[in-house]
Amino acid sequence: MNISEAPTVQFQDVTFRVANGRPIVSRLNFEVNRGEILVLLGRSGSGKTTTLKLINRLLIPSDGTVTVDGTPTTEWEPTRLRRRIGYVIQEIGLLPHFTVERNVGIVPALEGWDEPRRRRRTRELMDLVGLDPFTFADRYPSELSGGQRQRVGVARALAADPPLLLLDEPFGALDPLTRVEMQEELKNLQARLRKTMVFVTHDVREGLFLASRIALFQQGTLEFTGTPAEFLNTDSPEAQAFIRALGDTGGERNR
Amino acid sequence: MRLLDFFVNNSSEVLTLTAEHLFLVGLSTGIAIFVGVPLGILLTRRPRLSTPVLGLANVFQTIPSLALFGFLIPIPVIGGVGARTAIVALVLYSLLPVIRNTYAGILGIDPAVREAGRGMGMTDRQLLTMVEIPLAFGVILAGIRVATVISVGVATIAAAIGAGGLGVFIFRGVAMVNNTLILAGALPAAVMALAADFLLGRLERRFAHGRARLAELRTA
To answer: In whole angstroms, how far apart are CA A223 and each of A59, A175, A207?
Structure first.
């Protein structure tokens, strides 16, 4: 196998338990391949977000190993690992006292980039996500719409050019039209930048549209992994349930 | 106007006592900030300590101030008669609002913001200085304002243990049944409390609403 095609993230028998011993995810085995969008699909509480946090070491496995770029997360220095991984969460978490420009430039600032380089990079990224730097650089998050904030969140995650992006229901709070727009832009962005992405959603339509592969979660275990086409043809009852939900809400979008 | 005459005729004593009062309040509030803010931050890192520490600070506040001054007098090093004892007592009173507001201000920050900070690879120190302290600053300042106003009032009682300050006039006035003398102490103290409240309140609003006002300006 070519080194560049080696999986960037690998879960080996990973279990995560909370303090009272109840497992949130059990015996996960899967990998994320370089350059793909792996969609973690599942109902609320099925362990998707926990799985994501195990990758950037916000959580540490109770059993098993999560490997990022060949090194177990427990052996990574946490801040170094996290600065190599872009992270977008549903609530976005923009710093309310930082302008858009400073928000986008946080990781470069943490990494000690000098001011001109940081400035160039943030402007470039704002262009990339469709926010005019002249209009938006000096605004505060409170002055932005939901969609604009989400763009800032994506730009911020991309700032230090991390090879891997984790996105936790990033478009969950957006209205349906903005949501579709953002999905399309993210897909274009990925096609251009070739980033590896792990994308959490409970929206099967969004999952099918974005995924190179889908990992279906059910009650903390991995129920199915495969391409969207395989997903549509599997006889897994949970997958069937999701596909029925798709039928209830209208036809499939063009892929 | 007898009060005005009093101020004119005793201007040097009025100024001295006012300066002493300011010194008591300033130094004790300064120490309370210096101790209380780091302690409040520590409590956010060690939540299990928060109940005993806040409880203890609360207990000090329930002790009547005159009694607290009295209790401190026989204690060696920090006790005795004079300004030092008064400052210790004032610090004990001022600590609670400072600790509590620091603690509550940081805990009140949107968890998503904190998690985003950690997820981006901030160290604990960076999270504290770049995110938590700036966002909690308005609330911390509110605690400092409350502490200062309490101190101005309590410091009048410090005269009872020979610490000086505007309480000297008040105690003398009470002993001589002289209302003018009581007012000569009470009025400057009240003005001082109101001024501190006003100035710190303005500072606090600037930090709480600075961004909102900026937003208004830009859209206008």
So the answer is: 22, 30, 15
Residue B29 contacts residue B149 (beta carbons within 8 Å): no
Contacts of A106 in chain B (CB under 8 A): 120
Q: Is the per-residue pLDDT at A253 higher than 70?
A: no
State the Cα–Cα distance between residues B69 and B71, nearest whole angstrom: 6
Verify whether the Cβ–Cβ distance B116 to A107 is below 8 Å. no
Q: Determine how many CB atoms are found less than 10 A away from the CB of residue A172.
A: 16
Interface test with A, best of B118, B120, B127, B211 (most A CBs within 10 A): B120
Residue of B nearest to A77 (CA): B121
Edge-to-edge, what's the strand order for the sheet holding A9-17?
Answer: A23-32, A9-17, A63-68, A71-72
Q: Closest partner residue to A142 among B119, B134, B211, by Cβ?
A: B211
Residue A111: closest C-alpha in chain B: B121
How close is the nearest chain A Cα to the Cα of B167, in Å?
43
Q: Which of B115, B121, B218 sits opposite A143 (nearest CB)?
A: B218
Contact between chains at B218 and A89 (C-beta distance less than 8 A): no
Residue B70, pLDDT above cutoff 60: yes
Q: How far apart are CA A190 and CA B101, in angstroms?
A: 45
* Of A216, A212, A89, nearest in space to A156 by CA: A89
Confidence class for position B13, pLDDT limits 50, 70, 90: very high
Looking at the complex, does the CB of residue B110 fall below 8 Å from at least one CB of chain A?
A: yes
Tell whether pTM > 0.95.
no
CB pairs under 8 A between A and B: 68
**What would the pLDDT profile of A9-66 be if each residue is shown by its tens digit?**
999 999 999 988 899 999 999 999 999 999 999 999 899 999 999 999 999 999 999 9
Query: In this complex, do A80 and B121 lie within 8 Å of one another by their Cβ atoms?
Result: yes
Partnered with residue A224 across adjacent β-strands are A216
Q: In angstroms, rounded to a whole number, what is the distance separating the alpha carbons of residues A88 and B120?
A: 9
Q: Which residue in A82, A87, A140 is closest to B211 by CB distance?
A: A140
CB-CB under 8 Å, A142 with B120? no
Burial B55-75 (b: 16+ CB within 10 A, else e): eebeeeeeeebeebbeebeee
Helices (H), B46-178: 50-62, 65-72, 83-107, 111-119, 124-126, 133-155, 167-176
Q: How many CA atoms lie within 13 A of A79 on its CB side?
A: 12
Listed in order, strand segments (DSSP E) in A19-156 are 23-32, 37-42, 63-68, 71-72, 85-88
Tokens of A182: 């953002």
